[in-house]
C-alpha cells in the first residue's frame, strides 16, 4: 500500500526531559490500514517507509486514541525539512507489513 496524505505536526510530552513529535494519519486511511494488516508489531505498530520532502526513513506507525495511527517524526527529519510543531506536512507512506 502506497499513500499520500497531509497532516499537522503535534508534540507529545513524554517526560519533562523529552518530547516526541507525530503526524496523525487520516481516520479513513487508518481504518484501511487496520483492515488490511494481519501482522502487527509491539504496541500494535505497523512498519512503514515515510517520505517528507527530501527525507525518507523507516519506522512504525502506532495506533492512538480516536482510532487513528500516528507517524513519529525523527529529529533529523524535522531539522532537515525545517518542520516545527503545528506545521502541516505532506507525507508519502509505504506500508511494509502486510
UniProtKB/TrEMBL annotation:
<dbReference type="InterPro" id="IPR037079">
    <property type="entry name" value="AF2212/PG0164-like_sf"/>
</dbReference>
<protein>
    <recommendedName>
        <fullName>DUF1905 domain-containing protein</fullName>
    </recommendedName>
</protein>
<dbReference type="InterPro" id="IPR015018">
    <property type="entry name" value="DUF1905"/>
</dbReference>
<dbReference type="Pfam" id="PF08922">
    <property type="entry name" value="DUF1905"/>
</dbReference>
Amino acid at each position: 500500500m502506497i499513500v499520500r496524505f497531509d497532516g499537522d505536526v503535534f508534540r507529545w510530552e513524554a517526560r519533562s526531559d523529552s518530547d516526541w513529535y507525530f503526524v496523525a494519519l487520516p481516520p479513513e486511511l487508518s481504518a484501511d490500514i487496520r483492515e488490511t494488516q494481519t501482522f502487527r508489531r509491539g504496541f500494535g505498530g505497523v512498519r512503514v517507509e515515510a517520505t517528507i520532502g527530501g527525507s525518507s526513513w523507516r519506522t512504525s506507525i502506532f495506533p492512538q486514541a480516536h482510532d487513528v495511527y500516528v507517524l513519529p517524526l525523527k529529529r533529523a527529519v524535522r531539522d532537515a525539512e525545517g518542520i516545527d510543531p503545528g506545521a502541516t506536512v505532506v507525507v508519502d507512506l509505504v506500508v511494509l507489513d502486510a
